[in-house]
Amino acid sequence: MEKTFVMVKPDGVQRGVVGEIVNRFEKKGYKIVAAKMMQVSKDLAEEHYGQHKERPFFGELVDFITSSPVFAMVLEGENVISSARVMMGATNPADAAPGTIRGDFAVSIGMNIIHGSDSPESAEREIGLWFDKSELTDYEVAS
Ligand code: CMP
């Protein structure tokens, strides 16, 4: 079954909307297979956002992600990689539709409240970067 990496960024944690965001994914039908609150190191932030290294906002992005704790999780389910991104809305909250997470909770592209893997390759890389294999649970959902 497909898995993806999702992180509630420092702005989401500080505003107290972690529960509401988790609730949306749970209600949709995705399974949380791993989750943790963590303070991100500069090394992890730079590696996670490595593809943006040359962008002018890279330093700002790393400073923001390391500024206070994030809530990181791994979600599992059918088409969860693309579907979780639809639920998040456009990267720039100004373009995110109402009803999406960014559309409802964020206004600025730098502080856009949540990150989700954008492809199967990114999901595999990011899950491996943020979680040890031993932290991923495996359980059946009762029906
Ligand atoms: P995210 O999905 O975490 O992946 C890369 C992040 O870079 C993105 O969300 C935005 O928060 C951030 N980002 C993209 N463009 C800009 C920008 N122009 N200025 C600041 N941050 C940006």
UniProtKB/TrEMBL annotation:
The keyword Glycoprotein does not apply. It is found in: Cytoplasm. Transmembrane segments: none annotated. SUPFAM superfamilies: Nucleoside diphosphate kinase, NDK. SMART domains: NDK. Its main location: cytoplasm. InterPro entries: NDK-like_dom (IPR034907), NDK-like_dom_sf (IPR036850), Nucleoside_diP_kinase (IPR001564), Nucleoside_diP_kinase_AS (IPR023005). GO terms for biological process: CTP biosynthetic process; GTP biosynthetic process; UTP biosynthetic process. Residues 1-138 form the Nucleoside diphosphate kinase-like domain. The active site is at residue 115. GO terms for cellular component: cytoplasm. Its cofactor is Mg(2+). Homotetramer. Belongs to the NDK family. Major role in the synthesis of nucleoside triphosphates other than ATP. The ATP gamma phosphate is transferred to the NDP beta phosphate via a ping-pong mechanism, using a phosphorylated active-site intermediate. This is Nucleoside diphosphate kinase. The gene is ndk.
